[in-house]
User: What shape does this take?
Amino acid sequence: MTKTSEVFDIRIIGERINPGFRSTQALFEQKDLAGIQALAVRQVEAGASALNVNLGSRAMVDQPFLVDVIRAIQAVVTVPLSFDVPNTELFRRCLATYDRQRAGGELPLLNSITEHRWEPMELYREHRFRVMVMASESCLDGVARNNKTAADIAATARRTALRLRDQYGMPLGDVFVDLSVAAIIADTEGLNRATIEAVRLIGADPELSGLHLMGGLSNIGQQLPAKAADGSDLRHQLENAFLTLTVPYGFDTVLGTPWRGYAPLPEDNSVLQAYRYFLEQTGSNALRAVRRFYRA
Assistant: This one.
């Protein structure tokens, strides 16, 4: 994946082929392959270097349609695809359908595995692929749990990345560590702060050189007003605030909407300042800090 955004030096994996978007869900309901193709083309023309394919629960009950969607997309764009499906058998179907030549020889991505959902890696003997690893979830001594500290997130990223390298021979450049970005409206436990600190820890680990750090940013501004007081896009500025603080430390891939564009914020930007203040707070103080975004 070689394309980057025009401002941040990041990869963008297009997220729009996903039933979470009402317009896309309508395309799925109508089996509108031409509409899905147009959506794929629009994302690539806007700068996406790969496209995520997520049919939601429909993939479970209509596998032929899943195959049709993959083939239709690859008929009109030549970027690699990322497959977000709920089980190993569907990953197998996606990988068998994927035409690597149509993607310029580039490998597909599996979105995603965790330490307690490792079964898709059994497919690596049959098919080569890249993988997204969820660092927000760990499984030690058979017990799955959500990571809430930077140290735990970074440790999970390191453990899974080195396992992929040492047990499967996967180059670290084929590993994308997915760092969950929490909605600030409910973040009383410092999860945003932990994620940003984890980026710095992972980025500073010399043994993980070449690893990609990524995440979906749309959650960060959930339930906040769409616009700031000055009429600007508040939620998008929050996404850019997160990137401003993490890209310098190795965060290099966004699962997002390509045409939104991503750019660093100047230090005097009010949303960036409010986000920095929020990151210093915990508990009820964090919730009070969210009010600053209404005034930003």
User: Anything to note?
Assistant: The CA atoms of residues 136 and 196 lie 12 Å apart. The chain has one domain: 11-295.
